[in-house]
Structures are given as C-alpha cells and as structure tokens.
Write a structure and sequence with these properties.
This protein is an alpha/beta fold. The protein has 7 helices and 13 strands. It has one domain: Metallo-dependent phosphatases (Purple Acid Phosphatase, chain A, domain 2). Strands 1-2-6-7-8-9-11-10 form an 8-stranded mixed beta sheet, with no helix packed on it. Helix 1 links the parallel strand 3 (33-37) and strand 4. The termini are far apart.
Length: 307
C-alpha cells in the first residue's frame, strides 16, 4: 500500500508504479523493514551496473521489505547527462515495493570547493532536474516512534537558496518532533568520522566542515540515533558521540585500494534495518545472489573516461 501523506503543503506519495512520485515533506507509514541501497550508477553505458541492479531487484522481490530507500548516485552521470538520470529513474520502477530517494553528487553535482571544477558543482538547475525527474530531494517518513529525516547533502555549503530552505525545514522537523521520537538521519555523504580520519580524508568524502558543525549544533543535546549514508562504496559501522554511523555499500563496484583506503568492507551489497517502536534497529548487510563483486578500473573500465 502506498503510504499516506500529511503536510501543510502539497505532497506526493512514496514512489511506486509508473505515475507515482516521492514523498514531498512528511509521510506517515506503518512500514517496519527498510532496505537501503546506494551508488547504483545506472546508465545505458554501464551494463555491469545494470546487471547488479537486476540482482538487487530480485533480492528485494524475495525479501519483501516495506520500503526501499536509495541514498544517491542513482545515475552514472545524471548531473551532466539528463539521459542518465531519466534512465536511472526508470530503473526504480523495477522495484516491487514503495521506494524513495535522495540525490548524490553524480546526480546533481558535488558540494562546491575551491579545488573542484565548477562544472562538477551542484546547481539549482541540476537540483530541479532531479525534482522533475525523480522527486523531492529532502523529506521525512515516520515509522512507529522513529522519524527518518532524509536530506540533500549536496546542498551543504552550496549557498543556493535551496540550502537555506533545507536548513529551515530541518529545524522545523526537529522542533515539531515528539519528545520520545527517535531520529534516523539519511544522506548521500557520511557526516563525520574520527578527527584523524577527517584530517586525512579528501574534501569530497564527508560533509563540508562548516555544514557539519552547523548540523551538530542543531542536534545538540539530542543527537540522531542513526546516520545512514552511502557515497564511499564501502559498508561500515561507526559509533561516535551517541550516533551510529552506517555506511551503505555500492551495488555497482568498489574502488581499488590504490584509489581509496580500506575504511570498512569493500563489498557490493545492500543494508536492511527494521524500525519498530521501542527497539533499536540492528543493521544487516546483505550481498544479493547474483551480484558481482567488481572493482572499478580493474574488473571494469572507467565509465567516466571521455565523458
């Protein structure tokens, strides 16, 4: 059943079926089991990504979760190639259960930074294309005594008007949350790690420092119980300052150890969690039958070469 939606503004249901779109602001569902997928990098030019996605769809059909959440990099290069984003959006319709998503850097561009080419940065036009093709870029879903707050990590530090709107929306969500409601924050990029790891990491791996600090202040005294993200193409569990940080692996291909250090587990797969009243969800990583364990530039050529 498509979840019901309530909001003071116009809303859309969680995506399911050819005419369905994503929850716009606040959806209330009775769902419990959620499967998280990330970094599918779907495109007609990435057949290996397509094959692994088919394995994920078969797994979802057999597991029958209540909801699938895609944590970004849905497309191979949707930020620069609209055809990739349209193709990837169509692949979501293969899922036999309700789904929803947030964008990643390959979908709408990355957080601006001085050393990055401007053509790779997020823009309002790219964000609007996501909203037109896929749906909302930030939203919330209530499951029992849990509130899942999904945010567009690519807006952090962008200076776009949408960034200010998202901060305001997030403040409203936290202000209006019931005292006993626990928060699961969802985004494409991981928020943080140890100080030593943050210092050694490239600037594009985590949220920009200023936005990370702002989010920390916003949650001061009531940190999110869970922060679920993708982006790094590794699975990981990390406990920091009262929050369980969970990294959802890629379904497409991991990066070689030369390109990226081992921080968790470099395996393609998905993450499942059950949200229910009075319980702490236990993360379970799964490798669907038929999914190939691929390494970019070793098992498959670089699909971004020449783009």
């Amino acid at each position: 059943m498509v979840p019901s939606v309530r909001s003071p503004v116009a809303c859309q249901p969680v995506g399911r079926g050819p005419r369905a779109r994503l929850a716009r602001y606040r959806a209330i569902v009775t769902a419990k089991r959620v499967i998280f997928v990330s970094d599918t990098h779907l495109s007609p030019d990435a057949p290996e990504a397509q094959e692994n996605w088919a394995a994920v769809v078969r797994y979802v059909a057999a597991a029958t979760p209540d909801l699938v959440v895609h944590l970004g990099d849905l497309s191979l290069d949707g930020a620069r190639n609209a055809a990739d984003l349209h193709h990837a959006r169509g692949q979501l319709e293969m899922l036999p259960v309700p789904w929803t998503a947030v964008p990643g850097n390959h979908d709408i561009g990355d957080n601006p930074r001085p050393d990055a080419p401007e053509e790779l940065s997020v823009t309002e036009a790219r964000r609007q294309r996501w909203r037109d093709v896929v749906g909302a870029d930030y939203w919330s879903v209530v499951i029992a005594d849990w509130t899942l707050l999904a945010v567009n990590a690519q807006l952090a530090g962008s200076g776009l008007a949408a960034e200010a709107s998202q901060w305001s929306w997030l403040e409203d969500q936290l202000r209006n949350a019931a005292p006993g409601q626990r928060i699961a924050l969802l985004a494409h990029k991981p928020l943080t790690a140890t100080e030593a790891e943050l210092a050694a990491a490239p600037p594009y791996r985590f949220w920009p420092a200023a936005s990370r600090e702002r989010l920390s202040h916003m949650f001061a005294g009531r940190p999110p119980a869970v922060f679920v993200s993708g982006h790094v193409h590794q699975s990981r569990q990390l406990r920091l300052d009262g929050t369980s940080h969970l990294w959802v692996p890629t379904t497409w291909a991991v990066l070689s150890d030369i390109a990226q250090p081992v921080l968790g587990a470099k395996r393609c797969g998905v993450l499942s969690m059950t949200f229910e009243a009075g319980q702490t969800p236990q993360p379970q990583f799964h490798e669907p039958d038929g999914i190939r364990q691929l390494t970019q530039n070793i098992d498959i050529p670089d699909p971004y070469q020449g783009r």
